[in-house]
Amino acid sequence: MDTGVSVVGSGQVSGTPDILRVTFGVEQVAADVAAAVATVGERTDAVIAALRAQGVEESQLGTSSVNVFQEYREPGTDPAYRASHTVLVETKDLTGFGALLNAAVDAIGNSLALHGLQFDIEDKSELLVQARELAFQQAKTKAAHLAGLAGFSLGSVTAISEDHGHTPLGPEMRLSASKAYDSAINIVPDDQNVVVSLKVHFAWA
Predict the structure, then answer these.
(1) Is the pLDDT of residue 98 over 90?
(2) Which residues contact 34 (CB under 8 A, 6 or more apart)?
């Protein structure tokens, strides 16, 4: 059995986001699979064309998922099938959400869903370094305190494991063309937190 002490330290730093990711859903229910798939394909093309007209580049667009399934209906009713595409948009224009939303709603109306939006930081490498340093210092301080309580002094580090993440902004909304949307819609990006947790094992001196 290893002797020594294992502790967990956590470090958190904040950074200014420079990327906005928006996830749109395009959905259609129809009496047969072919009609549902065809309609969703056409409406997805319409959304993409509308977003391109807002200046979104081809490289900033992508379809992340395609689904087709039979919907549950009460016994005795005609079957129905739901097809859906998920369209991802990534942009560095953090103020352009309202225009993108308007364009997509105008293109296909009630067939559009907004699955979420997320601010992010493209390059987190420096923030991770800072958070890692804070996490290690916290772990060392904890370990030294515990060692003193037990009547020992700290030796060398024998093991380290790391876990890290960040806290994005990701609201969920369902859209309707009957609602009034305008280009004045604004979302304000908060600083993004980058968190590193380190599990560190110290031997006794």
Answers:
(1) no
(2) none
Give φ, ψ of 66 to 5 degrees: -135, 125
The Cα 183–Cα 54 span in angstroms is: 12
Assigned domain for 10 exists: yes
**% pLDDT > 90, the chain:** 71
Q: Is there a single domain that holds both residue 12 and residue 26?
A: no
Report the predicted TM-score, pTM, of the whole model to 2 decimal places: 0.73
**pLDDT value at residue 185:** 59
Residues 6+ apart with CB under 8 A from 101: 22, 114, 175, 181, 185
Contacts of residue 58, Cβ cutoff 8 Å, sequence gap at least 6: 52
Q: Which of 99, 120, 141 is the endpoint of a domain?
A: 120
129 and 58, same structural domain? no
Tokens (6 digits) for 73: 């209906």
pLDDT tens figures, 141-167: 999 999 999 999 999 999 999 987 766
**What's the total number of domains in the chain?**
2
